[in-house]
Amino acid sequence: MPDVTVTRRLMFNAAHRVHNPALSDEENTRLFGKCNNPNWHGHNYTLDVSVRGAIDPRTGYVVDLGALKQLVEERVVNEIDHRNFNLDVRFMQGVIPTSENIIVAIWRELEPAIRPGRLARLVLWETPNNYVEYAGE
Ligand code: NI
User: Fold this and answer.
1) Which of 7, 45, 81, 93 is 20–30 Å from 123 (CA)?
2) Domains of the chain with bracketed CATH
3) Does the pLDDT at position 7 exceed 90?
4) How far is residue 124's CA from residue 131's CA, in Å, rounded to a whole number?
5) Which band of pLDDT confidence, cut at 50, 70 and 90, is reported for residue 137?
6) Is the pTM value of this prediction over 0.70?
7) Residue 1: what pLDDT?
């Protein structure tokens, strides 16, 4: 059967402060500007989870998108929705919570649990104008 990529979109919101504790306050302000605001700020994130695999001849699906949604909620969204990336999220401890670092952390949480098929790509939108993508390299 042909390999097809299917994508499920999920939304969450979360707070963060982009801050490197190894640098001075002045350097943090210079590097990160408003994103270094000490009292946090939030984003409405959009996460696109793409799974690639063969079409199951019994169902016609690569993966049941309802089951995929449930898996992503259990492994990732429930851990980060309405939370603070700097303070609350186990898999972001010790990491500057930029979109780049968030998407790699999400990949590591999800990738071992994806089946059938394999995790092919994540896209994380921090704002309507900014997104990052990761395919596991
Ligand atoms: Ni931000």
Assistant:
1) 93
2) 3-134 (3.30.479.10)
3) yes
4) 5
5) confident
6) yes
7) 80
76 φ/ψ angles, rounded to the nearest 5 degrees: -130, -60
- Position of tokens 């939030």? 42
The answer to whether the beta carbons of residues 50 and 110 sit under 8 Å apart is: no
Report how far ligand 1's centroid is from the alpha carbon of 123 (Å). Answer: 16
Q: What stretches of the chain adopt beta strand conformation (E)?
A: 3-16, 41-54, 83-84, 118-127, 130-134
Say how many Å lie between the CA of residue 32 and the centre of ligand 1: 9
Active site residue 82: yes
Where helices occur in 1-137 by DSSP H, the ranges are: 25-32, 65-72, 78-80, 99-110
